[in-house]
Structure prediction request, 295 residues.
Amino acid sequence: MSVISIQNLTRDYGRRRGVFDVSFDVSEGEAFGFLGPNGAGKTTTIRHLMGFLKPQKGACTINGMNCWDNRAEIQQTLGYIPGEIAFFDDMTGPEFLRFIARYRGMKGDGRRKELLDRFELSPTGRIKKMSKGMKQKLGIVAALMHDPAILVLDEPTSGLDPLMQSRFIELVMNEKERGKTILMSSHMFEEVERTCHRVGIIRQGDLVTVDSVDELKAKQQKKFIVTFENSKAAEAFLKEDLQTEMLTHHRVAVTVGDNIRDLIAAMNRYPVQNITAPNQSLEEVFMQYYGGEQA
Prediction:
């Protein structure tokens, strides 16, 4: 059952900016990663889901409700961390959390204390004097303290130090185990790789692929490290019609796609001591779709 559904979503800002005919679904209990560099269309897509933008074409629904027509109801019931969190800067942290609780009609504090303890946050001062990291933690607490069944997370660890990033990843994994439906946009490949089963990659407003993390890795080019008995053999191997790179005097990196038989045939002509295949990260898969562009 699809909880989040985006069908043929289009918003054209001109000069190839926006999103174009984007379609994907997120099933109940699934964690879905949404990857792309700045300006690719991730935040624009998420803003349509939150009802901040009306589609020029297509539609977005959450739990069967149109995200534009039912935006007030949807915003009250899900957990949303925006890419840039807007606060009432003259409020203190506790005042802001009480305001959010009243807005949602919460009875009691929900998970507020648990989340404050997890992220070691004591938000007693005014928000305008808080660091970026403290503000991000406050935004996380505000988004999750009512224990929503659906999480929409746009670059959720921006501004957090490595320890707090790790704690957030653990939190998302726990929420996934509890059956939450999660859409997470991130530049942190480790976050997506550890927490998400499926991934969508968006480039210049076009959704270029949607697949499981394992399938994406399996389909892409693979790198092998070949160790030869001597440097002469390694240097000769570099002249083969393969994509190679000398690592040391005896070791060569080889990148192959669907030409694995060519690699096997070439290795049979040389004294090979060992061959290894390092695990391919999701970041390497992502960069293949972007042709080496920086995310």
Summary: The chain has two domains: 2-212, 221-279.
